[in-house]
Amino acid sequence: MRKFGIIGIGHVGVTIAYTLVTKGIADELILIDNNEGKAIAEQLDLEDAQARLDTTTQIKIQDYSELKDVDILFLTAGKIDAAKETGNRWAEFEFTNAMVKEVAPKIKKSGFDGVVIDTTNPCDAITQYLQKSTGLSQQQVFGTGTFLDTARMQRVVAKQFNVNSKNIAGYTLGEHGDSQFVAWSGVTVNSHPLVEFAKQQGKDLDYTALEEEIRKGGWSVYQGKGYTSYGIATCAVKLAEAVLSNAQLECPVSCYDKEFDTYIGQPAVIGKNGIEYVNPVALTDDEKAKFKNSAETIKSKFSTM
Amino acid sequence: MRKFGIIGIGHVGVTIAYTLVTKGIADELILIDNNEGKAIAEQLDLEDAQARLDTTTQIKIQDYSELKDVDILFLTAGKIDAAKETGNRWAEFEFTNAMVKEVAPKIKKSGFDGVVIDTTNPCDAITQYLQKSTGLSQQQVFGTGTFLDTARMQRVVAKQFNVNSKNIAGYTLGEHGDSQFVAWSGVTVNSHPLVEFAKQQGKDLDYTALEEEIRKGGWSVYQGKGYTSYGIATCAVKLAEAVLSNAQLECPVSCYDKEFDTYIGQPAVIGKNGIEYVNPVALTDDEKAKFKNSAETIKSKFSTM
Amino acid sequence: MRKFGIIGIGHVGVTIAYTLVTKGIADELILIDNNEGKAIAEQLDLEDAQARLDTTTQIKIQDYSELKDVDILFLTAGKIDAAKETGNRWAEFEFTNAMVKEVAPKIKKSGFDGVVIDTTNPCDAITQYLQKSTGLSQQQVFGTGTFLDTARMQRVVAKQFNVNSKNIAGYTLGEHGDSQFVAWSGVTVNSHPLVEFAKQQGKDLDYTALEEEIRKGGWSVYQGKGYTSYGIATCAVKLAEAVLSNAQLECPVSCYDKEFDTYIGQPAVIGKNGIEYVNPVALTDDEKAKFKNSAETIKSKFSTM
Amino acid sequence: MRKFGIIGIGHVGVTIAYTLVTKGIADELILIDNNEGKAIAEQLDLEDAQARLDTTTQIKIQDYSELKDVDILFLTAGKIDAAKETGNRWAEFEFTNAMVKEVAPKIKKSGFDGVVIDTTNPCDAITQYLQKSTGLSQQQVFGTGTFLDTARMQRVVAKQFNVNSKNIAGYTLGEHGDSQFVAWSGVTVNSHPLVEFAKQQGKDLDYTALEEEIRKGGWSVYQGKGYTSYGIATCAVKLAEAVLSNAQLECPVSCYDKEFDTYIGQPAVIGKNGIEYVNPVALTDDEKAKFKNSAETIKSKFSTM
């Protein structure tokens, strides 16, 4: 039986819930939110959908004790308005920090011993803080991190060549935030190394501009719809499925890095334990420096928590 | 190739879009909204999701000429805030009326000749108005109507007996609004006629209260989350799939009734032409009177459009 | 985590396996067959598929000890050739009887404590025998029974009226074999009682012929393809999903009947415990007699096991 | 509306049919086989399944005129027994050659103008012959070719490192037959070039043995189950979905190569036209020689047709 919990059912949380229900992924789903009326309404709306779906999901709300045997817990609480004003995810810090302080003990108390997937912002810092405050292992707690920024890189690069974004390989690494970067040296387009391929095709790519478009991908979506939901929810659900099926699937996520002693977006292998192991990929010296810089940025901000 | 259009990408429209994309139902999808920034943002967010999905959907925005060969067009534009203030879907009338006046000629001009599924409020009147103003046939234009209210009836009755809502048969009929009613005489629970079954089980059901819970189902969801999305979007997508596969699937929807010369929620068979035929079911005299009353309510309100 | 086991990977078993893998339903899947080479080949073939699917299923073979924490165990071993010669499922009796004698102790020894769904023939007798010989509860062990024959009734009746088989309600009851019968009194077509509706439509239905077409549905498929697989596998998977999600879904299946002290096809509610409870539906006296006759047929054949 | 045709409903064809039906991918499906009884039986079995599925697919059989507006036509007729005796796909040549001679004029006559996906053996030669004899364009006609052998390479390599086969990139190229080869220079494991990575991990891989395991992957499956079905059907369906959604998805398939004037397995981009363009990838000199050798093998065998 697949049992999921979601703490925070704003746009991201509830899109995850809808995805789990409409695709028949979840057998049981626990929704928790500070706004009880919202939890009741989302449960009703999802239950209205179920008479029209082929599958059934048991939905319960507001009960932390149900987390005891949850397999995957999504932490999605956020305060998007704070970030919107500034265009910087650290603006949500104060809110999410307080939120984690509130929920971590409750998670701990429930006896939860599954895997936590964190989508909150600033993702790397909050995920680390969550791991420390719940006492769950570093394997069990990870963040979506640059899995979404990598999807954005795939979208942006694919558009340059009119190819499918699923055929773009490579990574956006580092902070799920301003210090992130694309490791261009490893990006491929239909199996061709990007940089060479662009030259062959007579395309004069402005990598700085592309990187800005990727980095500001969330911001572009925010500006138009006031939040982001579909990209991030799809990423989170994919990671959850990898855990449940012990898929040993490699994806860039926010996980603990020993060298820099911080959570940071980097390739890792996802399985039943959450993070099975980190999978460091070859970087140029310049990319290594960017990774270090991003790690230090996260750390210094984290130290103020 | 399955090609869908959505006019109005508020909460309902975009949930339909996400469902079509995340479940791989749509090959091509056209999004149109008065707020171009919103259309751009939703396209970006859905494209961010696609690098993580197994299927691909081509998404285009803001181009009415693309409707020419669209198979299914969802009309979902609404102004939920108007309805929220009053708890009555007719409060959206002025807005949606003006919206239809604006979009109908554009649909017509595009050469669109597929099926329109309307989810806007007041659903019956707007669907009828849309049919008339586009010149599309009465078969081609129908509304979700009481398909959603029937799902709510299934949810509410199922909960009384702790059974699955998919095992509740029967209909909510009439207006997708206050004059709707449940045809209790035909409702069954796990194949048992409800009224007898409740007695056998020693359950003293308050049908008036249940009906109020069903009728106010949307309102309950509105109050908690500010809109409804998952139930209605799931209903709309199910109807669209029935059209595409020529499923001859019987569902209660808002369609034209000859006797009362109005669109109204009643069972009909859905296939490649949209409404294949109306499927009138047995009603008690009391239920017939309620149906007539609901039809007259819709008509009288429609006459003011 | 959803963990499934399948004992017997002939056409039915392996179609169940493929369905669980291709639709991403199973996280882990254990395949067991007397023919080890077949088990190895099916595992390879399913693993070849997985590089092209979005989801991952861990597949293991031939290890009874893995059944310990399996949620759903399908028993699908059969010897179709025996039945083919005679057109009677009891012809498989000797083979499946011996098979159950062989596998029941191994299931027991594994510590398995989930739900068994049996598709073998003669279904009712073998399911009962399996329940007794494993010591699992009557709730935990049930057969697909007339769930498939009911689907065939839906298909056959739907074709008479050119409607969707999903809109045909009612049941085929009794033995998954020659003594089965359709409870015509409860069959509905698009919510209309069948018998009246046919008259209204001026259709002079030959119920005996229809029932023969339904009863011989499996035989018709056998004759053309040498076995049946898609109908039965789809039924079995649907029941499994109902157990996993504790769906409280009502379906006709082969389960224990107290009055007649035998397993027999009748409506029951499916949930996390397997059979939650039997849901007897109204029958005419004639139908009651047929049910009794069918029960006695099963019992008398069972007594020879 | 998505309309598919399948000519040849042996194990591969009918598994494709079941996949299209059970996943709700097809709105309409035409099954054609020399054995009419088999076609009738498969239609019945698939229709038995549909009362239990959420989606509907219209299934028709044995009518070539229905191919007129089919979007995707699968050619899957084969004579596996011939190949089994020898372990060589060319042994099916005589049968499939005769089959194509029979069906090509019928396809042509129907007015079919969609995309053909060929899974028959010997795949490259038969696909080319089919293209020539139908007069359809080289874009419209392609074969699954080494898309399946690439999946097998992914499976075999993944197992060496206990990683997910979806994280293995690279290609098996050339003939879907004995002269195929793995382009090891481009294979990556979790983004690491295979050859280096294996060394780093202290793994001494025997590439010749791995290649033999890949090449004989089909043979291994044949030996255990008497045919292959799940891997190949999943590959074929994935390609079909790429065509329908104009996905511009890069995959290795059997398509026309100008340099060698033959169909051969190589990376190409799949979209609404079928083969949008060939996407040649970097090869070592040794790999180039193997590709040339494989092309010549196909050509010389083709010349005997």
TrEMBL record, chains A, B, C, D:
It comes from Companilactobacillus keshanensis. Residues 3-143 form the Lactate/malate dehydrogenase N-terminal domain. This is L-lactate dehydrogenase. It comes from the Bacteria. InterPro entries: L-lactate/malate_DH, L-lactate_DH_AS, Lactate/malate_DH_C, Lactate/malate_DH_N, Lactate_DH/Glyco_Ohase_4_C, NAD(P)-bd_dom_sf. The keyword Oxidoreductase applies. PANTHER family: L-2-HYDROXYCARBOXYLATE DEHYDROGENASE (NAD(P)(+)), L-LACTATE DEHYDROGENASE. Residues 146-302 form the Lactate/malate dehydrogenase C-terminal domain. Keywords: Oxidoreductase. Pfam families: Ldh_1_C, Ldh_1_N. Belongs to the LDH/MDH superfamily. LDH family.
